[in-house]
Amino acid sequence: MIWNPKAVTLSSATTKITPVPPLSSGGEQSAEETVRESIHRIEEREPEIRAFVQFDPEGALAQARALDALRPEERGPLHGMPVAIKEVFDVKRLKCAWGTPIHANRVPETDAAVVATLREAGAVIMGTAVSTEYALATVGPTRNPWDSSRTPGASSSGPAAAVGAGMVPVAMGSQTIGSIIRPAAYCGIFGFKPSWGTIDNGGSMPLSPALDHVGILSADLGNLCNIYSVLRRTPGTASTGKNKDHDFVKVHVLTEIGEEVLSPTAVAAIDTAADIFISQGYQVPRLTLAAEFSNADAILKKILCHDIARHHGDDRDRAGDHMSERVRTMIDRGRKISGDEYRQALEEVSVLAAHLEEMIGHDGVVLTGSTIDVAPPLTQGTGSRAPQLLWTLLGMPAITVPRGMSDGLPIGVQLAGARGNDDLVLLAAERLGKNRPS
Hints:
Layout: H1 31-49, E1 52-55, H2 57-68, E2 82-86, H3 113-120, E3 124-129, H4 157-164, E4 170-175, H5 181-186, E5 190-193, E6 213-218, H6 221-231, E7 250-254, E8 256-257, E9 260-261, H7 264-279, H8 296-319, H9 325-334, H10 339-360, E10 364-369, H11 386-393, E11 398-406, E12 409-417, H12 422-433
Parallel strand pairs: 2-3, 2-4, 7-10
Antiparallel strand pairs: 1-3, 4-6, 5-6, 5-11, 8-9, 10-12, 11-12
Helix pairs in contact: 1-2, 8-9, 8-10, 8-11
């Protein structure tokens, strides 16, 4: 095989927080008891973490009591599960400001599709969580739960930090470039971005419909799979353990991502994960991307700028002085991109996706870094998007799996696969997660 002795040793993941207690089953714990424990955790850590836009303890308790009043046969598969919702998804009667002062007082009257589906399945909405400006630019107040001087990641920073701090077991986020995978990795949790279009994003803030993905952040892979089973448009179990009839054959290892260089810590995490797959009998070849993939960043920027101009240009015109320079610049650039240029960019995406899927195969997955390193200091931004960008652009499923700690900070690896192979990626995560340091 291809793996050399490790240059960096990762310590086992020893959490500094007590996880939210497992959800009750068989009447061991009521929805109200579970929600009260989540409320306690939020009240305890929120002053430091600042993950929430609006925390709604009274509303959460009312939801929980209503769920407990249901007969057992009327209860949904997520009965009593506390969930935080990124503020780019509409939550009725709660503040959803899209991370911008332009919409600081925005309170929807209806739920986004994912929120409505979660409620119907018995989940309890604890509140709305912080996003960066338009899920893209100026960062919010949220801090990394492992080190408050470090970034919690990009736009899904609030949801990821809420889960990473043990305030809720699950949260909903979005990814248009890297905003599920990167925050989840920095906060030491699982983050799953399904194939594009697999989860209904109706009622969410449009940034780029061609790139926007709904994603799930969770401290536990089982809870993540349960949420995905409820939310996916195509019925399926999404229970990795029930998909043994469709296994992956190869784990393609990718350590060179554009011009970015993975740190020794990130490479060590990939190495140890590859060794686990080797020990399980999988083929683990190295993957090298062709030169044509070097244009992925430029293609994504063209699509994104065009779409943000279309959807938020009015905000630029009426309240541009309340926008960051980055957002204004992207809108101005997008207004200069013609329809023909936009369509060409989308065609290039289709070509790249088909090429990459041919390389990895329908029964292959890719193992790569979730991030180039551990979470950087807040003064250095939210980290590189290079390891996450390609999978978003091509609409492929990707998940970050916690793999240990380096100098007190979490490090993860990323698994990705062909479009529609979401269950295969989750299965690979389970095979890897069984050997997760503890």
